[in-house]
Amino acid sequence: MIHSPRSIAVFLWLLPFLAWPGFGRGEETIFSGAEGSFLAQINAQTPPGRAASLRLTEEGRQLLENGEYEKALSKLEKAIAIDSRNRYAYYYLGEAHYLLTEHQQSLNFLEIAETLFAEEPAWLAQVFALEGKNYEALRFFGRADLSYARALKLDPKNRIALQGLITMHKEPVTPSP
């Protein structure tokens, strides 16, 4: 078995994270944010358009969780039509397009989300991790590696980025002679 020094270094860096319960089992595919629901952000002072946009975003997020990607797209597009600054809707549009294997479209929405989440490191880490997944699917491995690294710089325990790096740095096992 032959491994490059880089893949060995990545493996050693990731080793402590591999012992987490549930790691690598796909338990975290959609990021729900600190509140768990966008409805918690709505109060008496929330402008009506913003409230409607957040409600649609929550509906879209739930549809994504249920595997109804096309329906989710419709809700999320409406959310942005109502409030073009709704960063959560842009993130979930990126997620929906990723799940529909529309990777370039996903990256387009994530680019917007990236600028809107500039002051929210946890969400920004999720944006970078999903960008990494898109780049990996497009076979742009250098860009994927960079996106995963950016996610981990903001959130060293980001499971999506960690799993992506592990997957990308697996080398085929070659039998020893």
Overview of the structural elements:
By secondary structure, the chain is mainly α. The protein has one domain (10-18, 39-168): Serine Threonine Protein Phosphatase 5, Tetratricopeptide repeat, CATH 1.25.40. The protein is 62% helix and 0% strand. It has 8 helices and no strands. Helix 2 (48-65) runs antiparallel to helix 3 (69-82). The longest helix is centred in the first third of the chain and has 18 residues, at 48-65. The radius of gyration is 18 Å and the shape is globular. It starts with a helix and ends in a 9-residue tail after the last helix.
In short, what is this structure?
The chain has 177 residues and is an all-alpha fold. 62% of the residues lie in helices and 0% in strands.
Write the layout of secondary structure elements.
Blueprint: H1 5-14, H2 48-65, H3 69-82, H4 87-99, H5 103-116, H6 121-137, H7 141-154, H8 159-168
Helix pairs in contact: 2-3, 2-4, 3-4, 4-5, 4-6, 5-6, 6-7, 6-8, 7-8
CATH fold-level topology: Serine Threonine Protein Phosphatase 5, Tetratricopeptide repeat
CATH architecture group name: Alpha Horseshoe
Residues in helix, %? 55-70%
- Beta percentage is under 5%
Total strand count, please? 0
Shape: globular
Mean pLDDT: 83
- Strand and helix order: HHHHHHHH
CATH superfamily: Tetratricopeptide repeat domain
Query: Low-confidence stretches at least 5 residues in length (pLDDT < 50)?
Result: 17-35
Going by helix content, strand content and strand pairing, the class is mainly alpha
Number of helices: 8
Number of structural units classed as domains:
1
Instruction: Give the C-alpha Rg.
Output: 18 Å
Q: Biggest β-sheet: count, sense, barrel?
A: none
